[in-house]
Amino acid sequence: MGPLLLKKIAMELNETVRGSIISKIHQPEAKIILLKLFIRGRTHALIISADARLPRMHLTERKYANPERPLRFLSMLRKHISNGIIEKIGVLENERIATIDLKKKTGETTRNFRLTIELTGKSSNIIFTDEKNIVLDALKYFPPETSERVVVPGVELKPLPARETKEETLIEKTCATWNESADLYY
After folding, report:
1. Which end is more exposed in the chain, N or C (fewer Cβ atoms within 10 Å of the end residue's Cβ)?
2. Residue 166 has what pLDDT?
3. Residues 6 or more apart from 68 whose CB is under 8 A from it?
């Protein structure tokens, strides 16, 4: 998924699911997260895939089987953002990186979190940070001995190094929305 399509999808998501409650979180495959969202009497499913072959983020109508035991990353997300609210979905300009800002109220305390979705091919990742941009967890860790950019719990998330952007061929909008077209395409 290229930056142009990601931007169009994020714009639609802000119109459709901004303010929604995260009612359920699933991890049907090691590199795929599925957020069940509830807003205005409707339920939506947002798929976020960090699979190197098909990195993507869009609403989906497809059904996915759930493994019997939740994986580590899923357990962390369920603990912190179940029943949280999506505040905003953003995209870094000309990048294949999206952010989902979340708010979760527990008793009198409100905490802010962010999911950073990097749809960058082989290094695709979903990173979960707190309001101070400290990594709480990630699908893939990149320790200091293996990467210039460290992604491990307890470390501040730094931006990805600048990359050369390639020409993007936008998928055809075959449905009413870009999200539906992406769901059909992928």
Report:
1. C
2. 74
3. none
Is residue 24 within 8 A of residue 82, CB to CB? The reply is yes
Structure tokens at 1: 């998924």
The tens digit of pLDDT for each residue in 46-64 reads 999 999 999 999 999 999 8
Structure confidence at residue 90 (pLDDT): 96
Structure tokens at 55: 């990195």
| Amino acid found at 80 | H
HSE (side-chain half, CA atoms, 13 Å) at 151: 21
CA distances from 103 to 44, 96, 110 (A): 18, 24, 7
Contacts of 24-27 with CB under 8 Å at 24 or more apart are 24/82, 25/74, 25/77, 25/78, 25/81, 25/82, 26/64, 26/66, 26/74, 27/66, 27/67, 27/70, 27/71, 27/73, 27/74
CA gap 153, 164 in Å, rounded: 28
